[in-house]
Write a structure and sequence with these properties.
single chain, alpha/beta, Nucleotidyltransferase, domain 5, DHBP synthase, 5-stranded mixed β-sheet, 21 strands, 17% strand
C-alpha cells in the first residue's frame, strides 16, 4: 500500500511517500524549483518521491492532503466579516488565489496529478483523496515516527483551519487531540508579529529573531504580558487584537503596537538598534514561558512521560531546550520538518495508522531515518557532470582515505562544502548538504557569515558533535541526543573561557554585532553564541554514516569532536539538492573545498574563468 502525502499552496510545499508504513521519501518543492519556501503545487517533489519508490501514480492507494481547505476558507470569511469593512483590502488580495487554487483543492489535485502521469490508469482507479486536519497532520508527524509507544503531543504554529495549538496523546497506532487554542489567539502569529516588527520576513525570518534575542535584555516582557497577551497558567494565551493587524490588514502589527515599542517597524536591511535586540529578547522569553507551560499542561492532562512536538513554533530550539531541562518529561522527540512541509509526511502516516488501522512498531531512535529522505546522486552521475563542464577533481575510491583527506583540510582551517548521500527533509542541514568548518577557529564564524553565507553577521552557527562526546562539550546528560538540531543548550563550563576586560566591554556595549559575536567565549568559539549557548546536532553512525566517520577522522587528528555545520546554500537560496547547485555555490563563494560523494574539488584547482560566476550567481536570489 502506497500513500502519497501532500502539502501545498501556503508555504514550504512538500510531498512524502509512505509504503506499507515505511517512510520511503520526502522532500520540499523549493529544493527542485530553487524558490525558497516555494508554495506551489509540489509536482517536482511528487515526481521524486514516486521515482524513489519505483512506482507510478497509478500504484498509489491513497492521496492525503495535510489540511481541510474548505474549513480554512470558512475561517477566512468569518474573520473578514467580523472586521468589515476594514478588512476589504486584505479580502480582495486573498480571494483570487483562493478562487484559482485553494478552494477547489480536490479537483486541483486530480488535475495536477493526472496531467503528469498515466491519465487513463489514474482516472480508471479514481485514487481516493483524504483531507486530514492541519493539526492532525502535525500531531501524526510528531508521534508516529517517534521512538515512543505512548507520548503526550503538543503542536503549535501560526494557524491551521481554526486551531493554532493543540495538545493530545499518542498511544500505539492512534493519536487523539484533546484540546486546542483557536485563531486569532496564536503563539505562532504573536512571534511572527515581532518578526515583522524587527524587520524580518514572516514565515522565514523567525529563526533570525531567535538568534537576535541573546543580544538584548527582556525589558519589554512586562509590556507584552500586561498589554498584548493574557498568558494563563496552562500556557493558553488571549491576544489583545487592538495591537495586531493580521486579521484585517496587510501587515502584522498596528500603530498601537508601534507606539508601545517606541517606533515603526524596522525597515528590512536597515541598522539594528538595541531596541530591536531588547524586543527580540522580550518576546523570546515570553514564548519560552508559554511553551513550557503548554508542555507541562500536556503532561499533566495526559499523564504521559514522553512528549512529541510539531508545528512551526516547535522549531524554536531555545524553548525546546528549556522544555528538556525544566519540563516533566523523561524524553522528548520533535519532528525534524516541524513546519508545513512535515504536514505532508504527517498526513500520509495518519492515513496508514489512524484511518487504515495498521499496527505500529516504534523503532529505537526513531523511524525518520535521520530525516535523510531526499535524492542522492552516484559517483558516476557526479563525475559525468564535472567532466561535461571540464571541472578538475580528484576521485577517491576508498572511503577511509577520503574522510582522512577531508578531515585534514578541516584541521588546517579550510571551509568545506560536504555533499553526501540523501538530501535532508526539513529546514536543517544534517550532514548531507552541509558547509563544514573547524569550531576551534575564532575567525571561522565571521569567515562563514561574510564570505560564504552572505548573511547577517549576528547569527550564530550550529555545532555538530559526536553523540558519545556531546556531554563533554555541552550541558547534556551522557547519551542524550539531538540528532535533528532542534535543541539549544549551554556550552559546558569546562570549555568556557573568561574574556579579557576589553572583550567584556565589547560583549556588552559594542553596537557592531560582528565584534560582539566574535569575542572568544569558549574553546569552540565558532559555535558559541553570545549567551554561551549552542544549537546542537548530535551525530551517530547509525543515522549519519559517512558524516560520522568524517567526524571521527577529524577527532583523531585534533582531539576535538565538534565541527561547525551550516546549510549548504547562500542567503536567499534553498539548500542545494543536485551536484550542479553545489558546484555553483562553491565556485561563487570563498569555500576552500567541495566534496561531492567521493569526488573532491579544491578552489585553487579551478580555472580562473570558473571563479567569475559569483556576481551572476548571487543576483539570482532575493537577499531579504
Amino acid at each position: 500500500m502506497h500513500i502519497l502525502g501532500i502539502s501545498a499552496h501556503y508555504h514550504d510545499s512538500a510531498a512524502a511517500l509512505i509504503s506499507d508504513g515505511d517512510i520511503v521519501a520526502a522532500a520540499q518543492e523549493e529544493r527542485f524549483t530553487r524558490k525558497k519556501h516555494d508554495p506551489a503545487f509540489p509536482q517536482h517533489a511528487i515526481d521524486y518521491c514516486l521515482a524513489e519508490g519505483g512506482i507510478g501514480l497509478e500504484d498509489v492507494g491513497y492521496i492525503a492532503f495535510y489540511e481541510k481547505s474548505l474549513v480554512k476558507f470558512d475561517r477566512l470569511l468569518e474573520t473578514y466579516l467580523a472586521f468589515a469593512p476594514s478588512g476589504f483590502r486584505s479580502f480582495r488580495a486573498a480571494m483570487p488565489v483562493w478562487l484559482k487554487d485553494k478552494l477547489f483543492m480536490r479537483s486541483k489535485l486530480r488535475g495536477h496529478l493526472t496531467a503528469s502521469s498515466n491519465p487513463k490508469a489514474v482516472k480508471s482507479r479514481r485514487v481516493p483523496i483524504v483531507f486530514t486536519e492541519h493539526h492532525e497532520s502535525h500531531a501524526a508527524s510528531a508521534f508516529f515516527p517517534s521512538p515512543f509507544e505512548t507520548a503526550a503531543i503538543l503542536t503549535i504554529d501560526g494557524v491551521g483551519e481554526w486551531a493554532t495549538a493543540t495538545y493530545g496523546k499518542g498511544e500505539g497506532n492512534r493519536v487523539t487531540l484533546l484540546g486546542q487554542l483557536e485563531f486569532p489567539h496564536s503563539l505562532g502569529l504573536l512571534y511572527s508579529a515581532f518578526t515583522y516588527y524587527c524587520g524580518f520576513k514572516v514565515n522565514s525570518g523567525e529563526y533570525k529573531l531567535m538568534g537576535l534575542a541573546p543580544y538584548g535584555n527582556p525589558v519589554y516582557e512586562d509590556a507584552i504580558l500586561n498589554q498584548l497577551i493574557d498568558l494563563k497558567a496552562d500556557g493558553s494565551i488571549w491576544l489583545n487584537m487592538k495591537y495586531f493587524n493580521y486579521c484585517q490588514g496587510l501587515t502584522m502589527t498596528s500603530d498601537r503596537f508601534h507606539d508601545l515599542f517606541g517606533g515603526p517597524p524596522r525597515a528590512p536591511e536597515s541598522q539594528l538598534e538595541q531596541r530591536h535586540m531588547d524586543v527580540a529578547a522580550s518576546i523570546q522569553k515570553v514564548t519560552e514561558e508559554a511553551m513550557l507551560r503548554m508542555a507541562r499542561e500536556a503532561g499533566r492532562r495526559t499523564g504521559m512521560r514522553n512528549l512529541v512536538m510539531a508545528g512551526g513554533v516547535a522549531l524554536n530550539c531555545v524553548a525546546n531546550g528549556r522544555i528538556v531541562r525544566e519540563g516533566p518529561f523523561d524524553d522528548i522527540w520533535i519532528q525534524p520538518a516541524a513546519g508545513d512541509a512535515g504536514g505532508a509526511l504527517g498526513a500520509g502516516v495518519f492515513v496508514w495508522h489512524q484511518l487504515l488501522n495498521k499496527p505500529r512498531a516504534p523503532k529505537r531512535g526513531d523511524s525518520q531515518k535521520g530525516s535523510l529522505l531526499g535524492p542522492a546522486f552516484s559517483n558516476e552521475q557526479i563525475a559525468s557532470v564535472l567532466r561535461s563542464e571540464h571541472i578538475p577533481f580528484e576521485r577517491y575510491e576508498d572511503e577511509s582515505t577520503l574522510v582522512s583527506a577531508v578531515a585534514g583540510l578541516l584541521a588546517n582551517g579550510k571551509i568545506v562544502g560536504w555533499f553526501a548521500g540523501r538530501m535532508e527533509f526539513g529546514p536543517r542541514a544534517l550532514g548531507a548538504r552541509s558547509i563544514l568548518g573547524d569550531a576551534r577557529q575564532p575567525s571561522m564564524q565571521a569567515a562563514m557569515n561574510l564570505k560564504i553565507k552572505f548573511r547577517e553577521s549576528f547569527r550564530p552557527f550550529a555545532p555538530c558533535v559526536l553523540r558519545e562526546r556531546a556531554h563533554e562539550y555541552f550541558d547534556m546528560k551522557p547519551g542524550q541526543e539531538s540528532p535533528y538540531m532542534l535543541l539549544v543548550t549551554p556550552v559546558a563550563d569546562r570549555h568556557r573561557v573568561t574574556p579579557a576586560a576589553d572583550d567584556l566591554r565589547t560583549m556588552r556595549e559594542d553596537p557592531d554585532l560582528r565584534r560582539r559575536v566574535n569575542v572568544v567565549r569558549s574553546t569552540i568559539p565558532a559555535v558559541t553564541h553570545v549567551d554561551y549557548s549552542a544549537r546542537i546536532q548530535t551525530v551517530d553512525e547509525e543515522r549519519h554514516g559517512r558524516f560520522y566517520r568524517l567526524m571521527k577522522a577529524f577527532e583523531r587528528l585534533t582531539g576535538c569532536g565538534v565541527l561547525v555545520n551550516t546549510s549548504f546554500n547562500v542567503r536567499g537560496e534553498p539548500i542545494v539538492c543536485r551536484p550542479e547547485e553545489a558546484y555553483r555555490c562553491f565556485a561563487a563563494t570563498e569555500m576552500d573545498a567541495l566534496v561531492l560523494e567521493n569526488c573532491v574539488l579544491l578552489k585553487e584547482g579551478l580555472p580562473e574563468g570558473m571563479r567569475e560566476a559569483r556576481a551572476g550567481y548571487l543576483e539570482q536570489f532575493a537577499l531579504d
